[in-house]
Amino acid sequence: MELLTHVLERTIVIQASRETVFRYFTDSDRWAAWWGAGSTIEARPGGSVVIRYPNGVRVLGEVLEVSEPERIVFTYGYESGKPIPPGSSRVTILLERGVRGTRLQLLHEFAQAEVRDQHVAGWRFQLSLFANLLANEVNANAEELVDAWFAAWVIADDAARAQALERIAAADVNFRDRYACISGLQELNEHIAASLRSCREFDWSGRARCGTASTRCWRTGWRAPATGRKR
Q: Which of 24, 104, 138, 148 is 20 to 30 A from 222 in CA distance terms?
């Protein structure tokens, strides 16, 4: 391999755990979902890398290093030999845990500056696809979670509400509204209980009646269904 003195570097932040992000470098199905049908990866030193673009162009490579879930290194070159043959460039993916998710750093090393420059737009596009793909996976059941979240706010029984919250929220969940800044499931459960007590009355259908003309509970944020009858 020639000296790889020209580096393309790009960094993005993905709102997902490192473990979730790294699965796209160890699971061929996820790898193919990113790059295209027929793409495969063997996440072990010496394992093969195949990227098949939608236009049929194929990139071949070999995995050089794997340190899950932090780092993977593989060679990169075109099956046709143009603009560079297999084994003639090197890609390093680094994943760092961040406050808002995972910081992904791409380093693609080339022997020629002009070839590096040819890949700038391509990696910008591919990493945008990658971030969107992760967002779709992480938020696949977002609607169900939102519904379950609001449903928990009208559960009168403390134990039943705690179980409902455990199914949808992390133990160290943080919650803020105009009335509270709290951390943890237990404190959240207590906050919801206090919010329910502040309402004047709840009927068995789960509709809050706060003594106002509004269909929305001022304290809990719960809103009556559009088909509900105003009481």
A: 138
Q: Which domain holds residue 156?
A: 142-209
Q: How far is CA 166 from CA 76, 152, 221, in A?
A: 44, 10, 20
- Pairing between strand 48-52 and 58-67? antiparallel
36 and 146 fall within a common domain: no
pLDDT at 223: 52
Paired with 182 in beta bridges are: 175
Q: What is the DSSP string of 11-56?
A: EEEESS-HHHHHGGGT-HHHHHHHH-TT-EE--STT-EEEEE-TTS
The pTM for the full model equals 0.69
Task: Say if 117 falls within a structural domain.
Answer: yes
Q: Is 34 a domain residue?
A: yes
Tell me the C-alpha distance between 98 and 104, whole Å: 10
DSSP letter assigned to residue 200:
S
Alpha helices in 139-217 (DSSP H): 142-152, 158-168, 185-198
Greater confidence (195 vs 90) lies with 90
Residue 229 reports pLDDT greater than 60: no
Q: φ, ψ for residue 48 (rounded to 5)?
A: -85, 150
Domain count, the chain: 2
- Provide the pLDDT for residue 10: 97
φ/ψ of 143, rounded to 5, equals -65, -40
**Two structure tokens written together for 106:** 């791409």
Same domain? For 126 and 146 the reply is no
Q: Between 28-35 and 120-138, two packed helices, what is the crossing angle to 10 degrees?
A: 120
